[in-house]
């Protein structure tokens, strides 16, 4: 249904104007040496093989062997050379390019500044000129060369950055592709002498590489989010996409307003979400002197934390829930942050409850209630400067357990994971290419398990790599094949390549899942390079179903990414992926139309791409924090957290557990899952066992408390959570919640929204 919506006259005019304008594609990376030029040149060869007229101009290989090799037989239009501060510079030769009039020009250095006498002051202006003459351009840029990122990059690294391009540059592009490279990959290239010509030595410190990588991931994720929202609006989809968080704080001009805003800011940072703040006021009445003072303070704070602020009209108390929910829906809010109710039971009966009114009206918006600690701690303003944890004493003697753990880590093989947003992005292709590179360096590399799906480009990348024979297993009279883990352990190669980590093994295999085989291989001291798609991460299962309408059955625990020494994203734009699909490069041609109309729909691919970008950005941030670096983009968390998940109905369990895990992981919190219910009928024990196993797999603690009457649940749970020192509880939105809230107002409470069929991204507004 994606192509049938009628276009407006403006859209028609824009489409016509684009017919006479070249296309712009930008490769973006964290630093020089990420592989942007390499991939740009490789794409140039692919276009040339398709009969498209491609030339290169002002391309800088910096004599890197892999990049020089990619130049091949691409036609070069000579650039204009000049010297600045003793360094040779290259400007585009616009006259020569116009005379040659190719279909596509490949050019490096989008942020380059031209010589004084040039026709235009910058390369970006040159590129706009070429685009206006119907010449398409593919170019490269580093994240710190974008104006919107430059200041933050300087703040986080302390390095003075060079020339930049305006903030709206990425919006000019028809396609933006991130070339992700881990700090380890960059440092290996540097050590091997493949990054000649780089003079910014400070950039190549591990911490700075991590910060710039995370900045690039988040910047492209924001760009993808903009395109996703535009697509969903065009298609008439309702509500949030499921790929990103948007936090709404509602507060009043009161002493505790800053606490709610600060809490909202911390939640937004840890969840990588946008932050909105609203207050409700009666515009026909002037503010009191005290309220006016709090308003000025609030405005300064909101500006400082980078939130969007709005005052909404307050007509009567009973209208507050409708006003807030309408605002939340129109702004695609995923979480509403507010304070606990301070009303007595009788006031609630007489005046109505704002919280209950909101819960009645929200379907896919979580409600987060900030703990009321004023009775214990007094009225206060949360400090603007958050204390970071001190470094542990460096000379402390390690315990026997700590020594044993470090020895195991030293003996263990190295683990690298390539992750993508969907099948066909190029994970296996890149894994095989890296395997061949290692083979050329004299490292013993073998293919443990390869799934080519008949893709010619992937098969061609096998090269000289040895493919190990698969083990044959009989199951229900049928002979099936699996990775031969025993053979790998016997042969002991230095590195083994393993496709599709989330695969479930044939019943009767030693391990149920392929990732468990991989862990055995790593324990034997053999390094592994593997692939997985983002939709297979256990904690993202609900988000993926909301995005695609499809429940992914094969999953891996999120700890697999944390176990990996390196996690690298293979990023491809949805349009490019769909083109590969139509060309039969992903699935057989008979399956193409079905795939394009289901999982590979544009909206799905954009949302999954954003999900993947944000997930790897979080992984980078976690690794930066483990290095005790203070310049984490998400900022420090304010205190030690203990998360308590309350499950009263078995059907809700999996979703609440996954939500509890993701929150606890981001807050670096210990977390518990407590099932409080009466024993059920047939199969109940098996379901309870499955809940416990999921909790343990994700690293939580599990408990079960039997009750004879549901009325006991709020009291029992509140007592359990208090004894455990819980700072935040997570509950499902149901009748029990109302009775629990008065008992838990000293804790933060996250009330998880219901999950209804109409929320799935593929359904339109009716």
What keywords describe this structure?
766 residues, alpha/beta, ten-stranded mixed beta sheet, six-stranded parallel beta sheet
What would you note in describing this structure?
The protein has 766 residues and is an alpha/beta fold. Helices cover 41% and strands 18% of the residues. The chain contains 29 helices and 26 strands. The strands form 5 sheets. A 10-stranded mixed sheet has the order 11-10-9-12-13-26-25-22-23-24, sandwiched between helices. A 6-stranded parallel sheet has the order 3-2-6-7-1-8, sandwiched between helices. Strands 16-15-19-20-14-21 form a 6-stranded parallel sheet, sandwiched between helices. The longest helix has 30 residues, at 206-235. It is globular and about 80 Å long. Residues 22-165, 413-574 form the AAA+ ATPase domain.
Overall pLDDT: 86
Level of helix content?
Answer: 40-55%
Which spans have pLDDT < 50 for at least 5 consecutive residues? 375-392, 756-766
Terminal CA distance reads 15 Å
Biggest pleated-sheet summary? 10 strands, mixed
The strand line-up of the biggest sheet is: 11-10-9-12-13-26-25-22-23-24
- Beta-strand residue percentage: 15-25%
- Structural category is alpha/beta
Number of DSSP strand runs: 26
Shape: globular
- Rg, rounded, reads 28 Å
Total number of helices: 29
InterPro entries: AAA+_ATPase (IPR003593), Histidine_kinase_KdpD (IPR052023), P-loop_NTPase (IPR027417), Rossmann-like_a/b/a_fold (IPR014729), Sig_transdc_His_kinase_KdpD_N (IPR003852)
Pfam families: KdpD
GO molecular function, one term: kinase activity
Organism: Paenibacillus alba
């Amino acid at each position: 249904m994606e192509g049938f919506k009628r276009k407006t006259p403006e859209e028609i005019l824009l489409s016509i104007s684009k017919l006479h304008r070249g296309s712009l594609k930008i490769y973006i990376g964290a630093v020089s040496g990420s592989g942007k030029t390499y991939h740009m040149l490789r794409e140039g060869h692919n276009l040339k093989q398709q009969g498209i007229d491609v030339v290169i101009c002002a391309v800088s290989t910096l004599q890197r062997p892999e990049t020089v090799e990619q130049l091949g037989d691409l036609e070069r239009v000579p650039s204009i050379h000049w010297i600045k501060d003793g360094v040779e510079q290259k400007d585009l030769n616009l006259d020569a390019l116009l005379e040659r009039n190719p279909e596509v020009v490949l050019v490096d250095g989008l942020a380059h500044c031209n010589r004084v006498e040039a026709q235009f002051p910058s390369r970006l202006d040159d590129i706009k000129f070429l685009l206006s003459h119907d010449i398409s351009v593919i170019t490269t840029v580093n994240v710190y060369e974008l104006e919107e990122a430059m200041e933050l990059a300087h703040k986080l690294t302390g390095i003075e950055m060079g020339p930049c391009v305006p903030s709206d540059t990425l919006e000019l592009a028809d396609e933006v592709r991130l070339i992700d490279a881990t700090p380890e990959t960059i440092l290996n290239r540097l050590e091997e002498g493949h990054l000649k010509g780089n003079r910014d030595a400070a950039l190549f410190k591990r911490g700075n590489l991590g910060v710039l990588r995370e900045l690039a991931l988040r910047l492209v994720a924001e760009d993808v989010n903009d395109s996703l929202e535009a697509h969903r609006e065009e298609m008439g989809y309702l509500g949030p996409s499921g790929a990103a968080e948007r936090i709404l704080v509602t507060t009043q001009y009161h002493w505790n307003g800053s606490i709610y805003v600060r809490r909202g800011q911390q939640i937004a940072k840890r969840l990588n979400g946008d932050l909105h703040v609203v207050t409700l006021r009666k515009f026909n009445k002037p503010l009191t002197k005290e309220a006016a003072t709090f308003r000025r303070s609030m405005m300064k704070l909101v500006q400082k934390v980078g939130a969007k602020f709005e005052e909404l009209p307050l007509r009567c108390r009973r209208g507050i829930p409708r006003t807030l929910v309408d605002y939340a829906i129109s702004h695609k809010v995923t979480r509403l942050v507010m304070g606990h109710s301070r009303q007595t039971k009788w006031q609630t009966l007489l005046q109505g409850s704002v919280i209950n009114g909101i819960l009645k009206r929200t379907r896919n918006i979580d409600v987060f209630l900030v703990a009321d600690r004023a009775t214990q701690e007094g009225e206060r303003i949360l400090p603007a400067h958050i204390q970071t944890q001190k470094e542990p004493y460096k000379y402390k003697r390690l315990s026997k357990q700590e020594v044993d753990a470090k020895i195991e880590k030293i003996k263990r093989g190295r683990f690298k994971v390539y992750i993508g947003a969907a099948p066909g992005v190029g994970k296996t292709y890149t894994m095989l290419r890296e395997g061949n590179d290692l083979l050329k360096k004299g490292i013993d590399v073998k293919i443990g398990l390869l799934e080519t799906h008949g893709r010619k480009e992937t098969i061609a990348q096998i090269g000289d790599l040895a493919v190990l024979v698969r083990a044959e297993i009989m199951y229900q009279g049928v002979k099936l094949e699996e990775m031969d883990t025993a053979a790998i352990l016997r042969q002991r190669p230095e590195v083994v390549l393993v496709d599709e980590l989330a695969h479930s093994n044939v019943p009767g295999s030693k391990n149920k899942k392929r990732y468990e085989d991989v862990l055995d291989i790593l324990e034997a001291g053999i390094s592994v390079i593997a692939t997985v798609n983002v939709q297979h991460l256990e904690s993202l299962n609900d988000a993926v179903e909301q995005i695609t309408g499809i429940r992914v059955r094969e999953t891996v625990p999120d700890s697999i990414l944390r176990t990996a020494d390196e996690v690298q994203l293979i990023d491809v734009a949805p349009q490019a992926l769909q083109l590969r699909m139509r060309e039969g490069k992903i699935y057989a041609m008979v399956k193409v139309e079905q795939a394009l109309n289901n999982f590979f729909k544009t909206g799905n691919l954009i949302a999954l791409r954003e999900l993947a970008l944000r997930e790897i950005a979080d992984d980078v941030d976690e690794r930066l924090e483990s290095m005790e670096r203070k310049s984490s983009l998400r900022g420090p968390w304010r205190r030690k957290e203990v998360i308590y998940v309350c499950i009263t109905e078995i059907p809700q369990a999996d979703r609440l557990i996954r939500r509890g895990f993701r929150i606890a992981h981001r807050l670096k919190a210990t977390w518990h899952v407590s099932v409080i219910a009466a024993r059920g009928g047939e199969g109940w024990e098996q379901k309870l066992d499955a809940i416990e196993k999921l909790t343990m797999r994700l690293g939580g603690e599990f408990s079960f408390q039997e009750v004879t009457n549901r009325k006991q649940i709020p009291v029992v749970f509140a007592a359990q959570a208090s004894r455990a020192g819980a700072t935040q509880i997570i509950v499902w939105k149901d009748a029990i919640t109302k009775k629990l809230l008065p008992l838990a107002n000293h804790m933060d409470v996250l009330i998880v929204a219901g999950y209804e069929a109409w929320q799935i991204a593929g359904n339109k507004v009716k």
